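Q: Could you fold this chain for me?
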Amino acid sequence: MKVIRTMAALIGAAALVSACGGGSNDVGKELGLQNPLIHFVHAIPSGPAVDFLVNGGALQKNISYKNVTNFANINTGQTSVAYAATGTTTALASGTFPDVAKGHEYTVIAVPGSSGADIGLIDDPFDKGLLSNSARLRGFNASLNASNLDLYLVPANNTNITNASPTLAGVSFKNAVPASGQDSVYVSGGTYVLIATTAGSKTPIFQSSSFDLANNADWLVTSVPIGGVLSQLLPNQIHLLVAQGGNTTQPALELTNTLNGQ
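A: Sure. Below is the predicted structure, expressed as structure tokens.
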């Protein structure tokens, strides 16, 4: 009897989501039935092409700066991840997800560190409601030269942030906001501008051109340093990478700073 009720709930949920423009994968994630999904973002400017390793084997290969891989299925349980120079398995940086779970999305980010390559890990529980068509948004800081940021997503026709609260506050180096293990922020589709400030300040250090954010989009906004040699970087010289989640390989959109033309 329990199986019948569960099947009925699944069929009803799928019908509702289909009617509202959602996808069956979202249903599986929301109900905790979808296999865990993982993808990789290369966020090291001027960094070499790399292979993405899961549990010691190459899952995706020859990934260059700004590239975002397809989501791929992985098994549940403890999972080690790393990236290595293409064609090798000697990790440049590595980490572990202690308990990979069904219905979750996992992101691994190649990050420039203070003494070489580093890694960022995000566990996204994907708690989006079945009937929601909102866009999902999360920030990550891969900029050692701008180690604590507030990010504002504001309408393109009103970029004054004097009285605005940060959309993503206090994004510190090698960390995400919302934090790994928490769900993304939900926003409506529209035409927006992204503004970054030093945390607690209202003085922009970065302001993007306007762009369209579609409903049902799944965005990771990652700050990256301009250039690849850390010793030559000035404080707060950053770009923002927008990595789109999904199953179509596409480079991240690199937003440049309209405040200084960089």
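A (continued): Residues 5 and 135 are 31 Å apart (CA to CA).
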